[in-house]
Amino acid sequence: MNIQEHFKKGKKEETVKAIIKEAKECNKQYNFFNTITENLAVRQIKTAKGKLAGLPISVKDNICVQGVESTAGSAILTGYKPIFNATVIQKLMNEGAAIIGKTSQDEFGFGSFNVNIGLDKKIPKNPHDPTRVTGGSSGGSAGFTAYTKHPHVAIAESTGGSISCPAAFCGVAGLTPTYGLVSRYGLIDYANSLDKIGIIAKKVSEIQPVLDIIKGHDEKDPTSLKQEIQKFKQVKKVALVKEAFKNQPLLKKQLIEKLNELQIKYEEISLPVTEKYSLQTYYIIAMAEASTNLAKYCGMRYGYEEAVKDSYDSYFTKIRSKRFNKESKRRIILGTFARMAGYRDQYYLKAMQVRTLIIEEYKKAFKKDDVIITPTMPCIAPKFSEVNKLTPLQHYQMDILTVGPNLAGLPHLSVPFTLQENMPLAVQIIGDHLTEYTILNLGEQIERSSK
Length: 451
Ligand code: GLN
Fold this sequence. Notes:
Layout: H1 3-9, H2 12-30, E1 33-36, H3 38-46, E2 56-60, H4 87-94, E3 98-103, H5 139-147, E4 153-158, H6 164-170, E5 173-176, E6 196-201, H7 207-214, E7 237-241, H8 249-261, E8 265-269, H9 272-293, H10 312-323, H11 326-339, H12 345-368, E9 371-375, H13 384-387, H14 392-397, H15 403-407, E10 412-420, E11 423-431, H16 436-446
Parallel strand pairs: 2-3, 2-4, 7-8, 7-9
Antiparallel strand pairs: 1-3, 4-6, 5-6, 5-10, 9-11, 10-11
Bound molecules: glutamine (GLN).
């Protein structure tokens, strides 16, 4: 049953109880949730009124829910219970949604496979094949969305691909909206100039009803946009990025067949600056911003703490050494380096300039074509045994197709399109700023029909 049918049938209380039971059971094997909020969901359902009344919603662990442990997947935030709701959560609750839990993620969003988890957390597994990763960093969101038999939508977040990647690996739909369209107030930041809250759902058609609730200007977020989403436009011409399909000729062939069937024209284009420089640009900016964001976690104000026995400096060092995982430490060191006097001009400021060139390259493409399509990821969900062999650099290289639209703040939708080795394979539709309705419409037309 999709969410539209759910609203017609109206068995809201039963659904919420059933999905909580399912979440608890599957969590033993799949680890999709860091916390399941049974009491909160049952309480909310009793008084639920509004456009989403009774809709079960899971929330990525880096989005604050009042009174519920919100750790961004990190052991340094264990025990942190925010005293307020993120704006998106408040909006969803005002429309009657039932929050069922906080989903697993890479610590602070640092990863593409959801294996860089907090030291006190468990790694989620792909529901199509538990020897494979869910993708990250919103692995719990996508994994549970694919697994559940009940109506449900996940609220997730992307900095450089954390919605697209796990949605693709788990065979569900994931929308990353235009930067600034959805308020970031109450999001535990990774990199402020890149973070976007978005939506993962089983079907593309389930995304818009939730997007329409969570979008909109918020004075609590200084980067929040005042502009509205543009009116939907029928897509007439798409651009396929030649280099992006180089290793996936079969996917390209099937996509072209689909476009022909829909009578949509296409042309092949290249995005040379994005192809060559987006990874380096993204990782410099993301790590620089992340290293400043993590400075506030010192075992005092938020989450995990111990008795202070010696100097504050040694206390902070002790807590940070003990509670951050390896990847977070790597990013603090690299990010601090990129921002240091003497290197700042060479790395951080240079990356900001290249970011502008990348934005310009996309903008130029949108003058000719309505949307741009690439595969979402270079491969199907890898096995844990394969991921364990990757170096950090190879790990970062997996994001080659998702960091571009994230750097440019462009809306993008990962759509389940076909299967390979019985695992889902997805394409990514990238639109110009504020064209969410247009890309969602095209997504509905091309999404794999057999689900
Ligand atoms: N894999 C990318 C990174 O590690 C993107 C993650 C994200 O979007 N949070 O930074």
